[in-house]
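ENTRY TYPE: protein
CONTENTS: sequence, structure tokens:
***
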Amino acid sequence: MISMLYPKMTRTRKVIDLDGMWKVYFDFENQGEDFSKGIPGKDYIPVPSSFADLYTEKKYREFCGDIWYETEFVIPEEWKGQRLEIRFAGAAHRATVYFNGRQVTEHEGGFTPFGADVSETAIYGEKNLLVVKVNTELRATSLPNGETKQLKNGTLMAIPYFDFYN
């Protein structure tokens, strides 16, 4: 089982921190699963962060739907044969995680940690591709909760029952 505690580097545990600049793609056209092996565009944002705090344009600041994130990193060769887990502190509100083009987990729960064992899909000593699709649509039954309405022009609009950004 994957521990949801914040991992710390120790003599027996190695950690790669993936915080930093990640490629991002707002899926305005709802193109979907085509991006599990890499996302289009050239935009980057810091992770972790709230995208709503980073943009001034209304279409980005109030975006509701799928946002894709991507990063690459190298896993040391000497880690081969060991259990390799990827951990997220949270993703609001639903996330699908792809590692080297293969779906490794899904999670719903806004601000709760989750993870996946990626030992079988890891490439050691070379770049690994991590792609995460985060869906920001709100539901009355989700935590935090709210609604998602579709406007006449087809745009989705989140109506939160809380006072902070996704």
User: Anything to note?
Assistant: The first strand starts at residue 20 and ends at 26. The chain has one domain: 20-160.
